[in-house]
Give the backbone structure.
Amino acid sequence: MKKFLTVMLTLLMYSSYAQDAQVVAKVGVKVVEQAYVFAPLPYAYDALEPHIDKQTMEIHYDRHHRAYYNNFVKANFDTKGNGMTLEQIFDNMDAFPDVIRNNAGGYYNHEFFWSVMSPNGGGKPVGRLDEAITETFGSFEDFKKLFESAGVSRFGSGWAWLSVNSDGKLFISSTANQDNPLMNVVEERGKPILAVDVWEHAYYLKYQNKRGTYLSAFWNVVNWEEVARRYMEATQ
Ligand SMILES: [Fe+2]
């Protein structure tokens, strides 16, 4: 009886986190080993208007992001990654099947993306991050051009990133599909501090095929406070 109550209590606690009854039902009592949270979007769907439109945000968060999360949790349940943090999985990415690579990546990358945007975003970085950007890329304007170029030139679907490498230096990279710089399968590894999603689902409703226009507009919503926080954490 005690064991039954413990399992029920754990399930109840988990279900309040998971926000997805289907996932809980699918994996049953073993769900106690799962600790992956589908976090709420940190602002309203229309909060990034007019730069990123409400309908895009709604579909992006509630359908694409949710599907990555659900598919990751389901696929990961019977792998050795169950119970590992996403960072630990990314460190050993080459040991996992593509279904985990794609969906763990999609889940992490989108949570990351929401966090580096804000309705109060835009402007410029300040302090140590500003200095590092100028030192590495020449100026903030030069950095923006290089970052946009990484996004525009990504063939097909993927992401552009600003990250910190193992020497504490900034670098810009682009990854295909749902890969990210934390994975041990990408060419340039590091700790990401800024990302932009260049999958068509991130911009096509408002910008159609004009990915470059979407990337120019992206600067209006960048949450530089969060990027700076991530930079400080990555260079500690
Ligand atoms: Fe996306």
